[in-house]
Amino acid sequence: MSSSCASDRIDLHWHETEPGSGIRYALVQLHNPERLNAMSVSMWRQLKQVFTDIQQQRDVRCVVVAGAGGNFCAGGDISEYARFRFEINSLRSFHEDDVWGGLGAMLACDVPMIARIDGVCMGAGLEIASCCDIRVASASSQFGAPIAKLGFPMAPRELQLVGQAVGDTVARQILLEATVLRSDDMLRTGFLSEVVADSTALQAWVEQKTARILALAPQAARLNKQTLRALAQGHLAQSLETAYDYASSAEHREGIEAFVQKRKPLF
To answer: What keywords are assigned to this protein (predicted)?
Structure first.
C-alpha cells in the first residue's frame, strides 16, 4: 500500500493466492473519493512509481486497477488546474512528465492488467483504463472525456492512447460532442470485455478472471505483452530477434510435459 496518508493517493495492495504459494497479484486503487477519485498531480506521480515497482516484481502475475468508494475515476483534479494550466511550459510538463509518466509506466508493465470499472470513468479514468488489457464495467458506469466544456483538448499522446482503445468514431464523439456513453455502448466498441449487472457481480467477475490468469504461465503472459507492445510500435523485426529465447525455459517444458501427461501444469 502507498505509504501516504493523504486522501488523494494510489494504494497498492498485495495479495497471495494461498499463504506461502509465492503466487501474487496486485490491487492498484485510485483513492480520492471526495472528488470521485479524480487524479491529482501527486497521484499521477505515484502511479508511475507503483507500476515501475510492479514491473520489477517477477512473482506478480496479475494487476487489478480499480477506484475507491464506488467510482473508477472522474478525470483530473480540476481544483489544481489553475496552478499550471495557463502557462505553456508548466502545462507541457504536467502532460508529458506527470500524466504520461504514469500512463507510460502502465503501458511498459508486462503484467496482465484488469480494469474493474464502476461508476464514472471520465478523462484521466478513460486513459488509465485504456492502458489495461481487460476491461469490465458495471451496467450503470459512465464513460467520456467532456473536456471541451472546460476549454481544452486532450493531449496528443493521451488522445492516441484513447483513440486506439475506443476507436476513431467514439473518440471523436466523446471529444467533439462531449458525449457521455454507457457501458453497453462501450461494450459494442470493443473497449469493454464484459458488462455485468452491479458492483457485486463486478467483483465476482474480476475475481474469476484473476484466478484464471494466475493459473496460467506468467512468462508467456509477459512475453505476449512485450510482443503486443512491439507490434503496436511497429517493431516487428526487433521482436523477432528474441522471440524464441524461451525455448529451454522451465515453464515451457512444464506446460508441454503436463499436456502430454494429462495433468494440470504447475507454473
So the answer is: Lyase
